[in-house]
Design goal:
Layout lengths: L1 E10 L7 H15 L3 E8 L5 H9 L2 E4 L10 E7 L3 E8 L10 E9 L2 E9 L7 H21 L8 E5 L7 H6 L11 E4 H5 L25 E7 L8 E7 L14 E9 L2
Parallel strand pairs: 1-2, 7-8
Antiparallel strand pairs: 1-12, 2-4, 3-4, 5-6, 6-7, 8-10, 9-10, 11-12
Length: about 270
């Protein structure tokens, strides 16, 4: 029998806009979408502590990178799961000469069909930073490959979700999806939206009221990526949709639309 797991990614826009009004809209949206696991970017690590809020108010198990004294470290990535997290870790990413602040976070999740490694990240922005994003994704690919090699017989393939700040035909995404040479021989990723999504899938869009006078809107920047090789049908995307596009009590939750993907898994 084939069932599905529901995996999502969403950039929740840190403290920007009216966070007090946006917070209940974020919560309502997550409850409505009901992902089994979600990678979240631009959470507040403190003032307010949205990590504690995810645990206490929404009942998630959460893995995240720690904060720091510099305020930039209060902008955090997290993996939130409806199932227990049995192990987790994080690493800084290459940011050139800037102070370290970009991270990748991973969680080993105890799903009903076995352990599952989920990674989330938020890469450097800037139209001219493709080379830096390539280096960041190379680091992440190496980390994923190491985790795969340590547990090669798992049913579920590792996945990477996040705000990659890169469009689908960019050098950095092409390196991930096998259209050019990647960082790790034999490791590539399926872009779930490319396989089962409908339309452009733009997640940073002029249709969002927070995206005012953007130099380059209508871009698909947020991804759910499933590693290959994998034991089919396990991990194959079967449906992909955007979410958070509908205001909650008149409030749009974030400046990014989220992406949710249902993935196949074989069960006895």
């Amino acid at each position: 029998m084939v069932a599905t797991l529901r995996l999502a990614t969403w950039n929740t826009w840190w403290r920007n806009g009216d966070l007090e009004a946006r917070t209940p809209a974020i919560a309502s949206t997550l409850r409505s979408v009901a992902p089994d696991v979600v990678g979240l970017q631009e959470l507040c690590g403190r003032e307010p502590d949205q990590i504690a809020w995810l645990r206490d108010e929404l009942g998630y198990f959460v893995a995240t990178a720690p904060g720091g004294e510099d305020d930039r470290f209060s902008v955090v990535n997290a993996v939130a799961s409806q199932w227990p997290i049995t192990d987790s870790g994080w690493a800084f990413l290459d940011v050139g000469t800037a102070p370290k602040h970009r991270t990748v976070v991973w969680a080993e999740i105890e799903t009903p069909v076995g352990p599952w490694d989920v990674f989330t990240t938020h890469l450097s922005h800037g139209f001219d930073q493709s080379a830096l994003r390539c280096r960041q994704l190379d680091e992440i690919a190496q980390l994923i490959a190491e985790r795969r090699e340590a547990a090669p017989d798992r049913l579920l393939p590792p996945v990477l979700v996040g705000d990659l700040n890169a469009v689908p035909d960019s050098d950095e995404i092409r390196r991930l999806t096998g259209r050019s040479a990647g960082a790790v021989p034999g490791l590539v990723f399926s872009d779930a939206w490319e396989l089962v999504g409908t339309g452009s899938g733009a997640t940073y869009s002029a249709s969002n009221p927070y995206v005012n006078d953007s130099a380059w809107p209508e871009r698909r920047l947020d991804y759910v990526l499933v590693s290959w090789p994998r034991r089919r049908p396990n991990g194959n995307p079967v449906q992909a949709e955007r979410f958070a596009m509908t205001p909650i009590d008149g409030v749009v939750p974030s400046d990014h639309w989220g992406v949710v993907v249902d993935m196949a898994v074989s069960v006895a």
